[in-house]
Design a protein that fits this description.
Elements (H helix, E strand, L loop, with lengths): L8 E4 L2 H11 L2 E6 L5 E6 L2 E7 L11 E6 L2 H16 L9 E2 L3 E3 L5 E7 L5 E6 L14 H15 L3 H15 L5 H17 L3 H12 L5 H6 L1 H18 L1
Parallel strand pairs: 1-4, 5-9
Antiparallel strand pairs: 2-3, 3-4, 6-8, 7-8, 8-9
Helix pairs in contact: 3-4, 3-5, 4-5, 5-6, 5-8, 6-8
Length: 243
């Protein structure tokens, strides 16, 4: 048999709050019911997310999650980010709701993905359909790069920012004089993001200053395009907290 379709219903506290969030990202509401059981369906092209409100539900305690496979991770993230910036003036990278940047995940065959945590506390994990690793399996990785990959798994995939920061701090201290400029800037920028997530803007600013002080070649800047873009985004976030 073929042609089956599965549409799990994700929990939330308020369908109105969830609808507002997904409309910000560019979704459209295709169904809404308030009685007897509040229900909602939000759609982005072929992505259909179903929600059901539960009285007294606590989003922070949610185990709701689903995986969405998409043909173009970069384009989808850019569209979501545009909607989020239009409303908030910045990306929401901490708390509930939030969104992570697309990053290669060693626990997902080195494929690049990103995460949206919605107001219901649901973890919507976006992954590419194409199973083509971006990182060649025989490419040599330095210690700092390996640790950075582990930190991304802990913080982005599992939501343990403190653990990710801890293991990254240890390797940064040991490898700060021997790591390549690309790995060092990438690691410092991600560590700054973790500092923002954990509510430490002063540390985040110091880490970004360290990152900016590292000399880079044109080739380095090409390799670090995503990290440098993230550094600019983090600086905007830090600036907005001091206004």
């Amino acid at each position: 048999m073929a042609g089956e379709m599965t549409m799990p219903i994700l929990p939330c506290n308020s369908i109105d709050e969830v609808a507002e969030f997904y409309r910000m990202l560019g979704f459209e509401q295709t169904y809404r019911q308030t009685r007897p059981n509040p229900s909602l369906v939000m759609r982005w092209e072929d992505i259909h997310l179903h929600f059901g409100a539960i009285p007294g539900f606590v989003p922070a305690d949610s185990y709701g999650s689903c995986v969405v496979l998409v043909p173009d991770i970069g384009a989808l993230f850019a569209a979501f980010a545009e909607g989020m910036r239009a409303v908030h003036g910045k990306l929401l990278i901490s708390g509930i709701p939030r969104m992570t940047r697309p990053r290669k995940r060693k626990n997902a065959d080195n494929l690049t993905g990103f995460l949206v945590v919605d107001p219901g506390g649901n973890w919507i994990r976006f992954h590419p359909k194409a199973a083509t690793p971006e990182q060649p399996v025989d490419a040599p990785l330095g210690r700092l790069r390996k640790t950075l990959d582990n930190a991304v798994v802990m913080a982005d995939s599992h939501g343990d920012n403190a653990h990710g920061a801890k293991i990254l701090d240890g390797t940064l201290a040991r490898e700060q004089n021997t790591a390549t400029p690309v790995d060092l800037v990438d690691a410092l920028t991600y560590r700054a993001e973790l500092a923002v997530r954990m509510g430490d803007p002063d540390l985040a600013g110091q880490l970004l200053d360290r990152s900016r002080a590292i000399p880079l070649t044109d080739a380095d800047r090409v390799a670090l395009a995503e990290a440098l873009s993230n550094a600019d985004e983090l600086q905007r976030i830090l600036s907005s907290t001091t206004d």
